[in-house]
Design brief:
- The protein is mostly beta strands.
- The protein has one helix and twelve strands, in the order αββββββββββββ.
- The strands form three sheets. The protein has a five-stranded mixed β-sheet with strand order 1-12-11-6-7, with no helix packed on it. Strands 2-3-4-10-8 form a five-stranded antiparallel β-sheet, with no helix packed on it. A two-stranded antiparallel sheet has the order 5-9.
- The radius of gyration is 26 Å and the shape is globular.
């Protein structure tokens, strides 16, 4: 075997090994890491009404020359009122359409003996959860949500009850295909400018996190 042939075979082996390493790295990179979803779920457009008899026949649509369209603009982030389709990580079939319906800031306590600490106040966020997977939703929504202010500071929930409305029960059980809603309450410093609200399945431990813009 000539030296040239040996070098050629050695080069082929090295290239094959490099390709295998690259494929392995790609596979590993595609399976891990937390992602923040900010895209609202789109609702299907209503079909155009069919033409009824007795009127003037509709004219066929005129064909227009194709026009070059600019690149699609970046989609606006989901805002309060929108729905985000979420999926869990720990168990297959755990998916839900989650909507951040409203933010009540400030929210007055419904218990005269349980109020926010001095220099702080309550904020109540109402969520709606629709179990879209093959399994019922059975989690504690209060542990799944967080608020984020315009400085990036995150705030966890509290068990306080407010006059904004009923809170979620713990745990909350929603049959597959059904929906449930309730408030999650937070305690934040006075003067805080809230920017985002987040929610994740698996009691907040899912890799996918839904995020809504406030205001």
């Amino acid at each position: 075997m000539s030296a040239t042939t040996r070098r050629t075979r050695r080069t082929a082996v090295l290239l094959a090994g490099a390709a295998l390493v690259a494929l392995t790295a790609t596979a590993c990179d595609s399976t891990g890491g937390t992602s923040v979803s900010t895209e609202a779920k789109q609702t299907a457009a209503a079909p155009a009404p069919a033409a009824t008899g007795g009127g003037t026949p509709a004219k066929p649509a005129e064909s227009k020359p194709a026009e070059s369209k600019p690149a699609e603009a970046a989609k606006a982030p989901a805002k309060v009122g929108d729905t985000i389709a979420l999926k869990g990580t720990l168990e297959k079939g755990n998916t839900a359409d989650v909507s951040a319906l409203k933010v009540v800031d400030p929210a007055a306590s419904s218990n005269e003996y349980l109020t926010a600490a001095a220099g702080k106040h309550y904020v109540a966020v109402q969520f709606q959860i629709k179990a879209t997977g093959s399994k019922a939703y059975g989690e504690a929504p209060w542990s799944s949500a967080k608020l984020i202010d315009d400085q990036g500071q995150a705030y966890g929930p509290t068990f306080a009850e407010t006059k904004a409305g009923p809170s979620f029960q713990t745990p909350t059980n929603i049959a597959a295909g059904d929906s449930g809603k309730g408030f999650v309450v937070f305690e934040v410093p006075d003067g805080t400018k809230l920017d985002k609200v987040q929610f994740a399945l698996d009691n907040g431990f899912a890799d996918q996190v839904g995020q809504w813009k406030i205001g």
